[in-house]
Amino acid sequence: MTCLALILACVAQAPETQDFDAFFDEFARKRDGIVVLEAEFVQKTILPDEILTTPGSLLYAEPRRVVFRTDEPKRTTIIDGQTGYEYEPDIAQATIFSLEDNPQTDVFFLAFEDDPARLREEYQVRLFTTDSDPRGSRGITVTPKPGGEDRAHFERVDLHLRDKDLLPYRMHIEHADDSDVVIDIREYRVNEAPDPKRSQMHLPPGTTVIRNDTVVEVTGTDTYLPEPVLFGRASEDTEDTETGREDGAPGVSATPLSAPAEEAAP
């Protein structure tokens, strides 16, 4: 579950309450109205003797779903509430597993949501400033609290935020094994009502599905997991989209789309 470990690793310690609360008030205002977003990224895994680079894409949708796709290797990972899904086409295998009620999940959702309360139960969260990139000068760092290092999948995560809308443009994840992951995020598309199938993983016939270490089926037809998120119409020009379910089953409804409080730009 390497991809999941990378995803579940994202953001630094806690400043004075006044500054912290003021920042997250602004953070919430600028995120208000974001129902779904997509973006492209380039991920670099920095190892002691090599650097591995892969392009990919991500989708965030209410309520609490993130879809993370990489091209090299080809892999789809979904966090849907407290359930994780991972599909590896090279071995024709999909895995479904429980994330339980774990604040580690909230680390990644903080990149797109606005409430750090649960995250602060298990981690130190602080703000930082930087002048290293014109896209944004502020960010959030998350580290395990003393004594919690063994439970965390990371030693530190820095989430660099764009000035305009406080969406992340870079995630820098440090691991205890001397490896780093740097994810550079670009080309945001906010509230554009994507095809609901983008909120799922496609399993072709012959895919082995494993749930909590037990094989539950080998797909006989094209299968999509989990249920699709059904997006509203962003405007009168937005076309109706399919549910993404071949059996016509209902999907998960997202909040109706509307423009965010401050329009997110690429």
List the helices and strands and how they pair.
Layout: H1 2-7, H2 17-31, E1 36-46, E2 51-61, E3 65-71, E4 74-80, E5 83-88, E6 93-98, H3 103-109, H4 119-122, E7 123-129, E8 138-144, E9 156-161, E10 168-174, E11 180-190, E12 201-203, E13 208-211, E14 214-218, E15 223-225, E16 229-230, E17 252-253
What does this molecule look like?
The protein is globular, with a radius of gyration of 18 Å. The longest helix has 15 residues. It has 4 helices and 17 strands. The two termini are 30 Å apart. By secondary structure, it is mainly beta. The chain has one domain: outer membrane lipoprotein receptor (LolB), chain A (Clam), CATH 2.50.20. The relative contact order is 0.20. Helices cover 12% and strands 39% of the residues. It has a 13-stranded mixed beta sheet with strand order 7-8-9-10-11-1-2-3-4-5-6-13-14.
Short description:
The chain is mainly beta and 266 residues long. The chain has 4 helices and 17 strands. It starts with a helix and ends in a 13-residue tail after the last strand.
